[in-house]
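Meet the record:
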Amino acid sequence: MELRPETEADWWEVEALLDLCFAPGREALSSYRLREGIPPVPGLSAVARDEGDILAGAIRYWPVRIGAATALLLGPIAVHPTHQGEGLGAYLMRSSLATARERGWERVMLVGDAPYYGRFGFDRLDLVEMPPPTNPDRVLGLDLVPGAWAGIAGKVTRAA
């Protein structure tokens, strides 16, 4: 499996994978309103391709703000059904989080299932508020730098 940064040439193929993996109406989620009109973070959004150059998985990151603080919004992450259960999702997570840390990002957040993402170190962000109708129990964060989420509170807004 080859992991490489997502390019413009990958965009529509990734969108087709997301349509396959997620329910119709995924773009109505509050996280999509934070992404509209803003490109993914260059070099962090990545695709995984198999030996036949077929898209097997993808992960995207977007910049957001919480008050004066900046953060990465992770998501979506998707693995093609023919590659699920192979550890590709975990590989995408760990690789991209390491790259984010290397590039100087301090914190990352996502909206997801705490038991699943907890294995990567994500914890609930009780003081961070995603736009409605997001379930607050699903707003999770990870320090890429120790203590990066300490004192960060408020509404998540679009990056400038």
About this structure: The mean pLDDT is 91.
